[in-house]
Request: fold
Amino acid sequence: MSYTRTFVDLDKLIHDRESFDCDEPELNNFIRTQATRLMDAGISKTMVLPASVSLPNGKTPICAFYSISPTSIKREDLPDNFAKKLPRYPIPVFLLAQLAVHKEFKGLGLGKVALVNALEYFYNISAHMPAYAVVVDCLNKNAESFYLKYGFQELFKYNERSRLFIPMKQVSELFR
Ligand SMILES: CC(C)(COP(=O)(O)OP(=O)(O)OC[C@H]1O[C@@H](n2cnc3c(N)ncnc32)[C@H](O)[C@@H]1OP(=O)(O)O)[C@@H](O)C(=O)NCCC(=O)NCCS
Reply:
């Protein structure tokens, strides 16, 4: 299986959600059963990187995906040096809710490609609707170490998972 160059909006009529497998049942379940429903409800958006060849069922396999939505954080959740410059009401941020690579492509750079694509997407949105930071919820330690590598910092821990953030100012420097 080889992949195309561009992330596109998930379309259940075109993309084969069932064959996606990243070895994480929660994320497999998300793309198979929740992503389209949440898009239809206007709650989040899922972008997929399609394979370059279709399956016998006429649909295209998904090589990687990420899912985004707006959310907010509390000023108090941020480290003091960030918090002191911010107002006391909820701080708007972009949520990178899910990101996963099909197990067939793990370790080949697609996770980095997906992350950079998502950050660029946020950067472009921020020209029209600003947000303070990008936050990610880490499924496990593995995911956490992946995001820490790219400059994310810890916001807080909950239920043994962690939420990380990267200020949009830092993201903007990548794409300006
Ligand atoms: C985590 C995940 C997205 C990484 O994707 P990937 O395609 O295997 O990663 P890449 O090949 O793009 O790796 C890019 C860089 O990150 C590093 N990296 C990959 N996984 C890492 C991890 N868990 N911890 C630290 N670094 C990691 C690679 O070594 C590579 O570094 P380099 O550029 O210096 O060589 C993928 O393994 C995955 O889908 N996991 C299951 C779902 C998941 O946990 N998602 C996280 C969000 S909840």
User: Anything to note?
Assistant: Residues 38 and 117 are 21 Å apart (CA to CA).
